[in-house]
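## retry 2 of 3
previous attempt timed out at serialization; input unchanged, resubmitting
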Amino acid sequence: MRPLPAVDGGAASRSASVRIGRETSSGLRWARNEGDGTTHAVGDKFGRGKSAASLTEEGRQELRRRLAEPVRREITDENRWFAVLAFLRHLGRRRRTGAVLRRRLAFLEEPASFFDDGDGPLGAEEVDDLFRRGVLVIARATPWAELGWLRETIASLGG
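## retry succeeded, writing output
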């Protein structure tokens, strides 16, 4: 999924405005405008402005397509996966939602390591460096909660 617009007012925010503008002109989104033609802005508790935008019907269809068929990077990259997961309820179809969750589960169950000896991935017990071992131990422990949640949710969706 494309990154969500930034709201910090810096270069990322200007880039986000360009994305909103492109998607608005392509018919995927419409921005609510004030009477003077500026995008509706609201402030948060820190005084930063945020732009409000809504999806058109064409944009909703495109969102559903992207949610149903995320590219591999949206399954494998944790931050992109969280963006997909945050909107997955909008897919609305249990079987299709389950298929997306099964793709993430399959990815997490693949053997992987940050370190390789040329013959394959190294496990924490095979690494002599104390700090590299720490990376592997932490990386191994982190996905257990997600694996449990994925399995439980897939089962609740009917397999």
